[in-house]
Structure formats: C-alpha cells, structure tokens
C-alpha cells in the first residue's frame, strides 16, 4: 500500500533522500508531497525520523471517481468502523488537481455525509482535535486516495521549541536549509541572527543523529492495530544510533531575551552542550573562526519583522562573509539577488509559513 508524505513547498527532493536513507522507494513526487510504499513499521519510522515532513498519511483506499454519486457510494462502502478509527470523531480535508470533481468544499461535504452514514452517526458532534482522526482526500486526475493522518499535529512543531522570538523559522525548514547548505558536521557552524535558536538546535540534532520526534504522541498510537513492541524496538534503535560527539555550533543574537529563549530550547532538546550562545551585534562583532566554517542564517527582513531600519549594510556584510566561507541565507530581502548574483551562489525558492523566501547558498568548491 502507499504512503503520502507532505512537506513544505519545494522540499520534496530532501524528503526523497530521507526515504532513501530509510530504504523506502519513491513512487511519485509532487512539489509538496511524495508517495512511497509502506508497512506499519515504515509509517512509525518515517514519523519518528523525518526532519522535513509535515504529515505522514497512510493511503487506505483508492478509486476512480468522476461524480458526486460515485463518491458518496464509494465512501459509504468503506469499512470505517472496524479499521483504524477508534474514535468516531474525525476531521476531513481535501485537495483536487485536474479532476472532474473540482470543488474541494463539495468533495469534503459529500464525503463527510457518507462517513457519518457509514458510522451510523445521526448528529455531527463537535470534534476535539486531540481525539479526532484526520482523513485527507487526495484527488489527482480522477484518482481519489482516501488517506488517514498517522502523525497527528504537523511534524514541524518540534517538542523542544517551547519559546519563540519574533518571526521564527519553521523547524522543518531550518532542517531543510542546513541539509541544502552541505554542512560538514566536523566544521564550525554559526548563526549570527539565531532568534529562538531553530537553526542551531536542528543542526545539533542532525549532527548527533537524534530523531527529531522521540518525544511525542502520534496518531498511529491510537489505531486499533498499533504494535507496541515494534514501536519500542524502533525507539530503542533510535536511541542506540545517537552520537555523543561535540560540535562547534555558535548561536548569536543582538536581543538578550531572545537569546535566552534559544538556550531554553537547546536545553529542552538536550543539545545545549554543543552550542555556544553569544550576545552580539552582527554589525560590530567579529567572526570567531578561520574561514573554513559554515554560516547559515535567517536575518531580519522587513516583511516579517516590520523593521524600519535600513538593512542594506547588514546584508552587504553577510554577502562579504559568504564570499569567504560556506553556508547560506534564507530571507525575502528584496535586493538579495543583487548581492548574491555570482557563479559562487545558487538559489532556491522556499516558503516560511506563507511567506515566499529565497535560500541563497554557497556552492561547494
Ligand atoms: C528573523 S529573526 C531569526 C529567527 C530565527 N531563525 C528563529 O527561528 O527564531 C532575526 C533575528 O535577528 C536578530 N537581529 C536583528 N539585528 C541584529 C544584529 N544587528 N545582530 C544580531 N542579531 C540581530 C533579531 O533579534 C532576531 O532574533
């Protein structure tokens, strides 16, 4: 059977690499999702290990659907009661692409009615997000895949980030840019605008091979067929594959309060011992290392921080540094392309929440 894994825009190639590491095949790739094959064990492993995924869905049923009558009959015929839903509370959403059924709203409404009928629920009760099971209807052409969310809340919300400063980077996007910047774990990494420490903490977790999701509950743990022994084995394997090496990661910020948040977050993730936190203004501070280091950062930009000051000098200095070291910058600063417009840089469009951003990265030599 198939598994559908969603991810931030344009991160599907990184997700595909994660699947490869878990020995899972790629069946199909979309800009915000990939399809693979699954067993329940694989579903547990991807949920635990993916640094890039948003949600992991098990494709339970699929059918060719061209009209709403067909849709109702098909959804009604599925065995909702006995399979995976312990609770009768559920939420539904849908996407359609190039299909005869074009309205996502009507798709959800008809499917909703059919599930209630199938479960013999006369009145729709208010759903509690903690208990409710998410069903996702994925229509590509006239092929309808009925998918069950096995993750619960989006996997980008890491357990350790209890504190955030202004304009935080999504955690899976931070992991994505670290991977895209080809950081070598034995080289120092610095984030001079660390905010709540997202890049520094994700880098430390990555270098120490700590599963991003070892402390949370997943939807699959509520399923009737949940295999506690397999899950415990996977957790134990993850624990045994962690490294305890020290890495040189430096997190700096001009705002002392925000830097305090970064420290708390790193302590939550048990990686504060490999990150140095330094209260410093990038404009006046000196870089610590010789040139063989990685600078990966998300500097302030107007759109999210509403900054009035002229940020041009700050970006010019960043561009000067990046000529000499490695890494990259994620931002939507309007003149970035001018500063990084050379053969030494490549750029990739990404989304931080709903904001379109660019990631400019130094090409390896
Ligand atoms: C976009 S936020 C970084 C958010 C961070 N990536 C996160 O996930 O929380 C930019 C950060 O730059 C800091 N900052 C602004 N000007 C600075 C300067 N001149 N030197 C150092 N840090 C500065 C701000 O305090 C803010 O925390």
Which key phrases capture this entry?
single chain, alpha/beta, VC0802-like, Rossmann fold, 24% strand
Overall description:
There is one protein chain. With 365 residues, this protein is an alpha/beta fold. It has two domains: 2-149, VC0802-like, CATH 3.30.2130; 171-213 and 244-362, Vaccinia Virus protein VP39 (Rossmann fold). The protein is 31% helix and 24% strand. The protein has eleven helices and 14 strands. The strands form two sheets. Strands 2-3-1-4-7-6-5 form a seven-stranded mixed beta sheet. A seven-stranded mixed beta sheet has the order 10-9-8-11-12-14-13, with helices on both faces. The mean pLDDT is 90. S-adenosylmethionine is lined by residues 164-165, 167-169, 192-193, 195-196, 198-199, 253-255, 258, 281-283, 298-300, 305.
Judging from the principal axes of the Cα atoms, what is the shape?
A: elongated
Q: What's the N-to-C terminus distance? A: 42 Å
Output the CATH homologous superfamily of the largest domain: Vaccinia Virus protein VP39
Question: What integer is the average pLDDT?
Answer: 90
Q: Work out the number of β strands.
A: 14
CATH topology group of the largest domain: Rossmann fold
Largest sheet: 7 strands, mixed
How many helices? The count is: 11
Ligand inventory reads: S-adenosylmethionine
CATH level 1 class label of the largest domain: Alpha Beta
Number of domains: 2
Order of helices and strands: EHEEHEHEHEEHEHHEHEEHHEHEE
């Amino acid at each position: 059977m198939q598994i559908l894994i969603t991810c931030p825009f344009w991160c599907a190639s990184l997700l595909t690499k994660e699947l490869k590491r878990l020995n899972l095949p790629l069946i199909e790739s979309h800009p915000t999702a990939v399809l693979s094959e699954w067993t329940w064990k694989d579903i547990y492993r991807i949920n635990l290990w993916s640094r890039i995924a948003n949600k992991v869905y098990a494709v339970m049923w699929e059918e060719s659907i061209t009209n709403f009558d067909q849709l109702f009959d098909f959804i009604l015929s599925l065995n909702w009661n006995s399979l995976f839903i312990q609770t009768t509370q559920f939420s539904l959403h849908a996407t359609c692409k190039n299909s005869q059924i074009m309205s996502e709203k009507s798709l959800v409404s008809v499917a909703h009615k059919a599930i209630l009928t199938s479960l013999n629920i006369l009145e729709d009760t208010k759903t509690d997000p903690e208990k409710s099971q998410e069903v996702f209807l994925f229509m590509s052409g006239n092929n309808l895949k009925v998918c069950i969310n096995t993750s619960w809340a989006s996997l980008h919300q890491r357990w350790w980030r209890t504190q955030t400063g202004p304009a935080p980077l999504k955690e899976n996007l931070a992991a994505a840019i670290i991977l895209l910047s080809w950081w070598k774990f034995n080289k120092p990494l610095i984030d001079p605008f660390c905010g709540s420490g997202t890049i520094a903490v994700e880098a430390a977790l990555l270098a120490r091979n700590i599963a991003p999701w070892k402390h949370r509950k997943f939807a699959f743990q509520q399923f009737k067929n949940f295999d506690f022994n397999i899950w415990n084995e996977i957790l134990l394997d993850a624990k045994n594959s962690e490294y305890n090496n020290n890495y040189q990661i430096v997190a700096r910020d001009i705002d002392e309060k925000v830097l305090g948040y970064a420290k708390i977050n790193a302590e939550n993730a048990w990686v504060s011992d490999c990150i140095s936190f330094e209260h410093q203004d990038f404009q006046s501070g000196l870089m610590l290392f010789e040139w063989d280091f990685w600078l990966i950062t998300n500097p302030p930009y107007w759109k999210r921080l509403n900054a009035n000051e002229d940020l041009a000098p700050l970006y010019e200095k960043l561009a000067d540094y990046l000529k000499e070291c490695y890494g990259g910058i994620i931002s939507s600063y309007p003149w970035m392309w001018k500063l990084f417009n050379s053969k030494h840089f490549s750029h990739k469009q990404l989304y931080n929440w709903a904001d379109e951003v660019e990631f400019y990265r130094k090409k390896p030599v």
